[in-house]
Design a protein that fits this description.
Helix content is about 45%, strand content about 5%. The protein is α/β, with parallel strands linked by helices.
Length: about 325
């Protein structure tokens, strides 16, 4: 069995000093469409927390989020590239990042553990049927596919949609590597807690004083239909070609440094219809809901045992 030192040598191109001030000590890892953006936005407003303005650095995941068949070129970059995003952190701040790809990517958990086994891991989960349907709408809006029925999308894009809703193996990867007291899991649609409760619990987990911004009740990154879906589809095709050919990687790094990615994201948001509403299971037909829940039921049962909680409201 590989020890942590040998794993570090395998995954990391330069030595890592866990005592360094400008390096993360917590990660919000997932799952997609379960509130990671919201939690990062809330913690970013805390004076004793530092999360880079750049969203989702994608350093530990081997696969791209939108095109998982293509290797993520950030995966091979030196550690210095990653740490520079945290250089502005103050000594008094806890430092973190939010990236859902670290939850579903098969390589990420081990690479994160090799990076720093003392990291705190924050995991947000919601009804996996709702998550699947929300992801179906999200990737359509992103232009990964044009308008196709829900069942067809899940069948054709299983890696993007269904696999990422099978939480058991994803949570277990972290449980197998990190002590349980370094991991906090929230069920965001539980009747026992509100999103404000989750925020205050996250702050306590990170040893922060409680601070609830006025915007805490507002959802972030709500999925919506695109005004011009064809435009997003064409943009996605260009993005896929550039990534597959590994073209313009130095240029892409430069654009990221000047926060161009955030501007592009702003254009995509402007291409959404304005009547965006959070996805709910009720948006599915009865047949679609029964079909997807049948695909998920065994995984939910395994997750219940792993977490030691009742998840019957997901069934």
């Amino acid at each position: 069995m590989l020890c942590v030192h040998s794993l570090s040598a395998l995954f990391l191109p330069i030595a890592y000093n866990p005592a360094a001030m400008d390096s993360p000590n917590f990660l919000i890892v997932g799952a997609e469409k379960c509130g990671t953006t919201w939690l990062a936005d809330m913690l970013r407003q805390h004076p004793r927390a530092f999360i880079p303005a750049e969203k989702e650095l994608h350093y530990f995941n081997r696969q791209f989020s939108d095109f998982p068949e293509i290797k993520n070129f950030n995966f091979d970059k030196p550690l210095a590239w990653y740490l520079k995003f945290f250089a502005a952190a103050k000594e008094s701040q806890v430092i973190g990042e939010a990236c859902p790809a670290y939850f579903w990517d098969d390589s990420a958990a081990a690479r994160i553990h090799a990076f720093n086994p003392a990291l705190k891991i924050l995991i947000l989960l919601r009804n996996p049927a709702e998550r699947t349907f929300s992801a179906y709408r999200f990737w359509m809006q992103r232009g990964i596919y044009l308008r196709i029925p829900f069942r067809a999308a899940v069948t054709q894009h299983r890696e993007l949609l269904l696999k990422r809703s099978l939480y058991f193996a994803q949570v277990k990867r972290y449980f197998d590597l990190f002590p349980r007291d370094q991991i906090k899991v929230w069920i965001t649609d539980s009747a026992d807690s509100t999103m404000t409760d989750i925020l205050t619990q996250a702050e306590d987990f990170l040893a922060l004083t409680s601070l609830v911004p006025a915007s805490a009740s507002q959802r972030a990154n709500v999925t919506a239909d695109a005004r011009n879906l064809t435009l997003n589809w064409l943009t996605a095709r260009v993005r896929r070609f550039v990534r597959r050919q590994r073209l313009f990687v130095p240029l892409l790094d430069l654009l990221r440094e000047i926060n161009f990615a955030q501007q592009v994201e702003g254009w995509r948001v402007q291409n959404k219809v304005k009547s965006a509403a959070p996805t709910t299971v009720a948006m599915m037909t009865d047949d679609e809901r029964d079909w997807i829940q049948n695909l998920l039921k065994d995984d939910i049962a395994q997750l219940e045992k792993l977490l030691g909680i009742n998840l019957e409201h997901w069934q």
